[in-house]
Amino acid sequence: MIDKEEIEDLTQAHEEDFILNVGPQHPSTHGVLRLKIKLQGETVTHIEPHLGYIHRSIEKMCEASSYRNFIYLTSRMDYLSAHMNNQACAMVVEKGLQLEIPKRAKVIRILMSELTRLASHQLWWACTGLDLGATTPFFVGFRDREVILDIFDETCGSRLTMDYNVPGGIMFDIHPNFQKNVHAFLKGFKKNLPEYHQLLTGNVIFQNRTKGVGYLSPEDTISFGCSGPTARGSGVSCDIRKWQPYDGYEDVQFNEVLETAGDCYARYLVRMREMEESVKIIEQLIDNIPEGDFQAKTKAVLKLPKGEFYSRVETARGELGVYLVSDGTSKPYRMKFRSPNFSNLSALREIAVGGKIGDLVANMAMLDLVIPDIDR
Amino acid sequence: MKYIYDFSFLTSKIHNWFLAHCSSGWTILWEMVIVGLCAITLFVVLGLIFVYMERKVAAFMQFRLGPNRVGPKGTLQAVADTVKLLMKEGFTPQAADMFLFNLAPFIVLSVSMLALAPLPFAKGLQIYDINIGVFYISAVSSISVIGILIAGWASNNKYSLLGAMRSGAQIVSYELSAGLSVIAIVAFAGSMSLSDIVESQRTGWWIFKGHIPAVIAFVIFIIAGTAELNRAPFDMAEAESELTGGFHTEYTGMRFAMFFLAEYVNMFVVCAIGATLFLGGWMPLHFGNLSGFNHIMDYVPPFVWFFGKTFFLVWVIMWFRWTFPRLRIDQLLTLEWKYLMPISLVNMIIVAFVVIMKWHF
Amino acid sequence: MKFLIEYIGTIFKSLGSLWNGMRLTLYYFFHPKEIHTQQYPDNRDTLTLGERFRGEVVMPHDENNEHKCTGCTSCELACPNGTIKILYKNVVDETTGKKKKAIDEFVYHLGMCTFCNLCIIACPTDAIKMSHDFEHSTFDRKSLTKILNKPGSKLMKGVE
Question: Which value does ipTM take for this structure?
Answer without folding.
Answer: 0.83
